[in-house]
Amino acid sequence: MPELPVRAVGFVGLGRMGDPMVRRLAAAGVDVRGHDAAPGPRTTFADLVTIVDKPAEVVPVDGEGPPVVVLMLPDSNVVEAVLGEGLLDALTPGTLLVDMGSSEPMRTKALAERVAARGAVMIDAPVSGGVSGATAGTLTIMVGGPDAEVAAITPLLAVLGRVRHVGPVGAGHALKALNNLMSASHLLASSEALLAGERFGLDPAVMLDAVNGSSGRSGSTENKWPNFVLPETYNSGFALALMVKDIRIALGLAEATGAPSALAARTVELWSEAAAALAPDADHTEIVRWLRAGESTDPDPRSDR
Ligand code: NAD
């Protein structure tokens, strides 16, 4: 593997995604200083990363290349709280602050100005590909930020996946929310169709095999249904609550720009109803369980079931 221009990274948020990402960085020879509010990850990471007690202590002091701090946190509220806990004041001039979580684009743009006031640069680099993509280093990374700094961070991000520079700061977060709006919509649409097929008497595995060679295919039919719904494991590692957060961001963006959003609005309603009915830590693929729970017990008499 070629030498990375960045040798030291601070990393805040060692959860489902942060965990495998940090492991990949450490395996690539990067010196990682990590912090998480939960005590669990600290012991898991004892031998891999230097764990520090406060977010401000993750900022690398003497690595090669620009100091880099990565955030992999649930949402903009937590990002701002962590920055307010001393991390913002600890950023040294030239530091690249890379928010890889799925945050709100407008809040990211506002934060970028506060970060710039410290002489540091904010980059948004949210990801798609889930826990399996984070583990395999095959995430798609949607990067927003200025050209020179994005170029400087790209070799490091390439350890984690496929880097796409999509625009200025905030652009990555906007695109990520829109991506998840598409994903949430087609998981609902595919699931309704597959449940209807099941009630008609079709085998879901047979339907998926046919659809995945047809125009109805999507990430939901190619990945989520075969890997998490059919085996009834519902363990994709992406929480339903985080999906609801993302699609609300996307709907807000659609409404703010005046784009058509009738389906987006209905999608947000349905996912929010599912979130209220399911356990707080439900996996997003459990939306299918929720749909099943709402199935009619009175099948259409025209079907032969
Ligand atoms: P997670 O809840 O598993 O991890 C978040 C981590 O942040 C936790 O370990 C938590 O303890 C920590 N944290 C919370 N508040 C903190 C604070 N104040 N200070 C320090 N640490 C704090 O979530 P995740 O699934 O890893 O997702 C992280 C981000 O990535 C989210 O924005 C999510 O939408 C996005 N994302 C997740 C997936 C996925 O498949 N899980 C895929 C793509 C994007």
TrEMBL record:
Keywords: NAD, Oxidoreductase
Signal peptide as annotated in the record: none
Entry superkingdom: Bacteria
Listed Pfam families: NAD_binding_11, NAD_binding_2
Top-level EC class: oxidoreductase
Residues in 3-hydroxyisobutyrate dehydrogenase-like NAD-binding domain copies: 170-291
Parts forming coiled coils: none
PROSITE patterns named among the record's database cross-references: 3_HYDROXYISOBUT_DH (PS00895)
Keyword NAD tagged: yes
Molecular function as annotated in GO: oxidoreductase activity
Ranges that cross the membrane: none
PANTHER family reported for this sequence: 3-HYDROXYISOBUTYRATE DEHYDROGENASE, MITOCHONDRIAL, 3-HYDROXYISOBUTYRATE DEHYDROGENASE-RELATED
Family in the record: Belongs to the HIBADH-related family.
Protein name in the entry: NAD(P)-dependent oxidoreductase
Lineage, uppermost ranks: Bacteria, Bacillati, Actinomycetota, Actinomycetes, Pseudonocardiales
